[in-house]
Amino acid sequence: MVIPDASTMPAVESEAQLRALLAGLCGVDAVGAEARAAKLATRSIKRSTKRAALDLAISMVDLTALEGADSPGRIVSLCTKAMRPDPRDPRVPSVAAVCVYADLVAQARTVLGDSSVKVAAVATAFPSGRASLRVKLADVSDALDAGADEVDMVIDRGAFLSGRVGQVFDEIVAVKEVCGRAQLKVILETGELVTYDNVRRASWLAMLGGADFIKTSTGKVVVSATTPVALVMLEAVRDFAESTGHLVGVKVAGGIRNSKDAIHYLVLVNETAGSSWLTPDLFRFGASSLLNDLLMQRLKQQRGAYVRPDEFSGD
Amino acid sequence: MSDSHVEVRKTYKLLIDGALARSESGRSYEVTTAAGAFLANVAQGSRKDVRAAVVAARAAQANWWSATAYNRGQVIYRLAEMAESRRAELAEHVALSEGLKPAAAQVTVARAVDRMVWYAGWTDKVAQVLGGANPVAGPFFNFSLPTPSGVVGVVAPQESSLEGFVDCVLAPLCVGNTVVVLASQLRPTPALLVGEMSTTSDFPTGVLNIVTGFTQELTPTLASHEDIDGIDLEGVEGDAADALAKVAAGSIKRVLRPRGRHDDPTSLRRLRAFVETSTVWHTIGQ
């Protein structure tokens, strides 16, 4: 693969240069990526390794509540669950973060206090990204003022697909600037990017723009995270790290509902980006129902019997 | 049939969530006739197949119960229609599996189809028989209604591969439960034929799930599974039922102990086994 030659973050000075850089990325072998992802999904993780993987996956969950019907009450129970996923077992790690709309950040912040669980806010006219930059930046500022630690922004897919990469890049840079020390996750919405080549280009675009995480999906379109897409993104962060020394995280979101899928992703991370990425600082699952399945499988490992789904609360 | 016809051998599969599928484990085992000749290759289910079947049964239960009793009766009657038109095939498998003479097998199949019709008739009558209006000291109506336990695990009888199977499976289905059944280990093909018929009988997917395999290997999973609400141990032999009942108690299941051949076919024991009585109060004269 052609990697831009730079020992630090390459400075993007013009849209033409950015365009050339993205065009210089070699294409993704789609059949190969799908075969590799499918092959890695057959790997079997058992016993103590499985137990460790379940705990690791729990600690990587961004517990997500992104429904129009979310109430402050639901956020309170969600945050309580985030800090102590299984009330009976203090050995279960806290999740990484709760992920909510900007207007509910303050509520989440109040409940979480100074616990290790971060507050992530989706902003920039989530999930469509269809708003002016001014509105998007105001959305981000709102979330940060309310106490968000992390911001999940969406890119303008329309601009990206019609070739206006400079505009997408500038938006990311602008949002990053407003974020300051808050972590920025850039949602590529891979389900709308059509090809793996576009996923690779968008990943690089986001990383060059200053993303701390690149995230697959909003969870609001039909096609969410898939393993081949995650593979392409993990290759991108690996290559970016080799080329610039910056470690960028990956967040897979949407449609990951059971432990088996989560463990497949962990295998993919380990085999693609490497074991350095097996930490909540560099890999996350954006999910809501996944946490309960992880807890169920964890309990199954302890009890030796399959567990009822209603053993754990809905939120 | 012309001499050039190539014999098409059938692989018998599991029925999970409406799909006829091989075991997740990829295993299969050989089933022989009562005389010891090869009969069929049958999927050897694993505990993960049981788990998948329970997930399907749980997902299907609310809709199966919220359908009208009349509708459940129609669906079960439809199963009888399907079985009626395939009586010859069922009789052949019962004869081979149980070592019966053809005439005796035909009688067994006819009785099994009759049982299907019997249970089809019961769906909208159990409430009257098992429930009722209770006398109370106050200005209230008080009703007791039988509601299903939920998901029922069934260890089907080992010997009575069709008739016993039909009894053990349709009784819990009739009152609104969904079922995960472990077919007879040595004689699974009649049960699997009924499973195939169920897929063309308007049973919603996941209502009836059939797992074949080694009884000793799979019964502990069935008994310990916390998302199963009741278990019929009819096909468990010897002392194993005690141990399994103890395991089942860990998740507060209803347990139906094996009775074997002493069971009276007109008894309501099975219909009564997997229902919970729900009592409703209502004021009088408002």
Defining key terms:
heterodimer; A: 315 residues; TIM Barrel; B: 286 residues; alpha/beta; five-stranded parallel β-sheet; three-stranded mixed β-sheet; 10 helices; 13 strands; 43% helix
Write the layout of secondary structure elements.
The complex is a heterodimer of chains A (315) and B (286).
Chain A lengths: L14 H9 L6 H11 L6 H13 L1 E5 L6 H12 L13 E5 L3 H8 L5 E6 L9 H13 L4 E5 L2 H5 L3 H15 L3 E5 L8 H14 L3 E3 L11 H18 L4 E5 L5 H14 L10 E5 L2 H14 L12
Parallel strand pairs in A: 1-2, 1-8, 2-3, 3-4, 4-5, 5-6, 6-7, 7-8
Chain B lengths: L10 E2 L1 E3 L2 E3 L6 E5 L5 E6 L3 H20 L2 H17 L1 H12 L3 H21 L3 H5 L1 E2 L6 E9 L2 E5 L7 H12 L3 E5 L6 H10 L9 E4 L3 H10 L5 E3 L7 H10 L4 E3 L12 H5 L1 E9 L3
Helix pairs in contact in B: 2-4, 3-4, 4-6, 8-9
CATH class of chain B: Alpha Beta
The outline of chain B comes out as globular
Low-confidence stretches of chain B: none
Mind describing the biggest β-sheet of chain A?
Answer: 8 strands, parallel, barrel
Kindly describe this structure.
The complex is a heterodimer of chains A (315) and B (286). With 315 residues, chain A is α/β, with parallel strands linked by helices. Chain A has 12 helices and 8 strands. In chain A, strands 1-2-3-4-5-6-7-8 form an 8-stranded parallel β-barrel, surrounded by 7 helices. In chain A, strand 7 (249-253), helix 11 (259-272) and strand 8 form a beta-alpha-beta unit. The longest helix of chain A has 18 residues, at 227-244. The termini of chain A are far apart. Chain B has a single domain (14-283), classed as Aldehyde Dehydrogenase, Chain A, domain 1 (3-Layer(aba) Sandwich). The A-B interface holds A 304-309, 311 and B 51, 54, 58, 221, 224-227, 250-251.
